[in-house]
Amino acid sequence: MPTEGPCYTIVFEDNTETPTIQELRSALEKGSDEDKLETLRKIIVATINGNSQPALLMPIMQYIMPSKNKQLKKLLHFYWEVCPKYDENGKLKQEMILVVNAIRNDLQHPNEYIRGATLRFLQKISREAELLEPLIPTLRANLEHRHSYVRRAAVFALQTVHRENPSLVPDAAELMQTFLAAESDASCKRNALVFLANVALPRAVEWLRGVWDGIVSMDEGLQMVVVEVARLDCARETTNRPKYIRAMFELLGATSHAVKYEAATTLTTLTQNGAAVKAAASCLVTLAIKESDNNVKLIVLDRLDALRERHRHILDGSIMDVLQVLSSADMEVRRKAMSIVLSMTSGRNAEDVVLFLKKQLLRTQEQEFDKASEYRQLLIQSIHVLAIRFSEVAASVVHALMDFLSDSNNPSALDVVAFVREVVEKFPALRPAITEKLTNTLMNMRSGKVFRGVLWILGEYMEELDAIEMVLGEIRKIIGEIPVLAAGLREEEGNPQIDEQHDEGNFSGTGTGRPRVLADGTYATETAYSVTSTRTEFSKTTKPPLRALILGGDFFTGAVLAVALTKLVLRYDKLTSNRSKANSVRAEAMLTMTSILRVGQSKFVTVPIDEDSNERIMGCIQSLSELNGCPEVNEIFLKDSRTAYAQMLGAQEKCAADKKAAETVKENVIQVDDLLVFRQFSKKSLDETVDHLEDLGKATGAGEALEDFISNLSRISQLTGFSDPIYAEAYVKMHGFDISLDVLLVNQTSNTLQNLCLDFATLGDLKLVERPTVHTIAPHGFQSIKATIKVSSTETGVIFGSILWDGPNLTECCVILNDIHIDIMDYIKPAYCSETQFRSMWTEFEWENRVNVSTKMTDTREYLKHVMQSTNMSCLTPEGAMSGDCDFLSANMYARSLFGEDALANLSIEKTETGAIVGHVRIRSKTQGIALSLGDRITMSQRDGKRSL
Asked: Measuring CA to CA, how many Å separate 224 from each of 191, 192, 231?
């Protein structure tokens, strides 16, 4: 008898109409084949769920076994697999002799498919040695059957039997070697070679030596086994390694993609020769291009990336082949291929790579690509990385990328702005050409974010007199007639002012006034500073781009414009000796800023100007009005902003370098009494391990450390009170997407509790996988019950229930259990994303939960760490942005659940004069559950923090 019983999947059983044993017996005896099928199915489900119903064993033998219905015969195999075969003393039941006889008859059945199904059934009962022993001669006879389907199934049936009970087939190696030599069917050969390799590897190698020249022409399945035999043989000392390497080279040209992949990966484990590595890499690239399944593409690219890490310079020549993978329509494949390309790019091939990416960038505009906007953004980001890393290609790409500043896809245009901003800072020689191109592109821009980035660049890096005059002229063109409010009112009245003309670059103004009637009936004089231009006249219906944004309520862009104008005017004032012209330029800039303020404070716009923008613009006006009175302020405008940006770039480069260094240096901590393993002494490749059994153990967690006793105690929840008739407590254990409950029940009465049932129910995205069975507990006895619950999201879940049992006089007794609240923090892990991705998700996600800060902490950074620790979120805001002594703090946080749900949070807090911290935490997510759960978590942590304080 096996020491451990088999484990079966729990199948849902509908208990609303449970038939009695007599009804089931009657259906087996008198029902039609369809009735028998349904009845036998019910019996199997009940047996799997713990109700074996042994009284039905003989009726099944009497009425089902003689049937010739193939569906019944197949279902009968399922029943023999799950039914109890041993009595209470562990001896084989007498009825099983009849079952063995029936199985033997099926193994000798003239229909080959019944034989094959029976042979596959024998694999499922391979542990039952007493059942299998009389069937071995018949099983061996099926190796000579005329049909390959039967022979193929017989080989694997013998392999399974031999693996569990070697004594039943003592001559398995000789039997398979003889069978392999005489067999002609490829699938049967494949199964036999698998069997022989697992039983006697030297015999499998001996057979393989006789067919070296025919490996290329073999069937796909047989080729896969040949690769596996080569891998197993090379795990030990062997003289056949050169032959295996040659065979793997030949299999790289096989027609099957699976064989190619296995041959390429095996070849890199057998040799480190440069030619072999290149051939394997070329094969993997070809697979990534030609394979249609995107999942397979990603797996192949992962293998290629691992190969690149070990053989960096050898694969540099294959970079143009890897670029062909970008032709895939899947964005994940494109991103993975692009990351490999970026890591393989060097000074020798940087120009070729950038040229290819530029062509792809142009094709996204000329042709209709799948997800063209995302692909364009990926290309722009990649060119950005390469241009910064290899300065010699920056000049050739920056002008091409600036054509995308007017792109309707806002993320792509923003990536271009970030790229141009970094280039003009790091490469001073390119500044004049870039700023001139930006100036000429202003009229084609439409996005406020793009305008803000470009205006900052122009305000910082325009250092020539002529260039500043050109920029001011272009700004005048994109903002239109000023004052904006007066012109807008005239347009509403249907009397738009006719544009005057003057020479470009000559700024002149005249003050004109006229009386107007105000809303209260009084008179007032409106004075407008009129500036004209020889530029193309605007249509009455089409507003200039920047003017449209300001009238639409984008006053943040207006504030950035004011700062840029201030910088340009300050620099212009230093460069020119014509004071009259300098005063004219300053007056026009101040008029533009005042016009923006007037628009924001009027009823002409739907959205009034915000306080921050208003204060910022007023500060710029004041700085220009006191042009030479505050040199410190001028220094802040002209130097400090650029210095801060340079420091930010330096911090980013340092962070990237530290991260790369941390990934390169892997520290392995080894305890004093740990066993040291030197793989160099094992005759294996230095490239990668071929010990797949060890890898399987690692993958299944065989080497993981067990939790300590204290951590287990923290997961115990008390379900009932000490004075209840039954004391219950549960140990809650998280297993990935499952929750395991181990419930201990203690009968605290002097009576036997019969038909005791533990009834669980769930609230939230939890689902009970199996319902606990009925038990009987002796006086003061113990009972352990296990239950499994499936989790499908990070929504806060609650498990509740009751304990029911039969009391005196058949009355039903009940104890209500305490609720078990599932901690969602076990499913949320810190994650990282870029600022652009964070802003995009923040705009997209619709669920928001706002939690007010209520704490006795007095340090803003300590509170940020407290929130990060309690929510398992990572801080995306750089440390440098939060450094310094300040009474307010704003930080972005991000986390991702095991179910792929994104969670965003923004912390905005301020320290008051009394020392208390006030503010709020805004949480956003795509689904409501995770936003509410994280909000509840923060609220609970604040409450617990108050108690501890």
From this structure: 11, 13, 11
SS3 384: helix
* Contact (CB, 8 A) for 227 and 246: no
Confidence bin at 539 (pLDDT 50/70/90): very low
Answer with the residue of higher pLDDT: 698 or 743: 743
- Going along 442-563, which residue ranges are E strands? 510-517, 523-530
Helix axes 70-82, 96-107, angle to 10 degrees: 140
Looking at the DSSP bridge assignments, the partners of residue 890 are 908
Q: Is the dihedral of CA 401, 402, 404, 409 positive or negative?
A: positive
Q: Please compute the mean of the pLDDT values over residues 311-328 and round it to a whole number.
A: 83
- pLDDT of 5 over the 80 cut: no
- pLDDT, tens digit (0-9, with 9 covering 90-100), for 111-170: 888 888 899 888 888 888 888 888 889 988 988 888 888 998 999 889 888 888 888 888
Q: Quick check: 895 and 871 in contact, CB under 8 A?
A: yes
**Which secondary structure element, helix H or strand E, spans residue 493, and what is its range?**
none
Q: Is 593 left (phi over 0), alpha (psi -120 to 50) or beta?
A: alpha
- Closest of 745, 719, 722, 725 to residue 813, by C-alpha: 725
Q: Which amino acid is at 266?
A: T
Residue 644's identity, in one-letter code, is A
Separation of first and last alpha carbons in the chain: 62
Token pair 């108690």: residue:
947
pLDDT per position as a tens digit, 32-68: 888 888 888 888 888 877 777 788 888 888 888 888 8
Helix ranges (DSSP H) in 577-713: 579-601, 611-625, 631-635, 641-664, 692-699, 709-713
Helix (H) or strand (E) holding 518: none
DSSP letters, 397-432, are: HHHHHHGGGG-SSHHHHHHHHHHHHHHHHH-GGGHH
Q: Which residues of 741-761 are buried (b: 16+ CB within 10 A; e: fewer)?
A: bebebbbeeeeebeebbbebe
**What residue has token string 């807008």?**
488
- Report d(CA 310, CA 628) in Å as an integer: 62
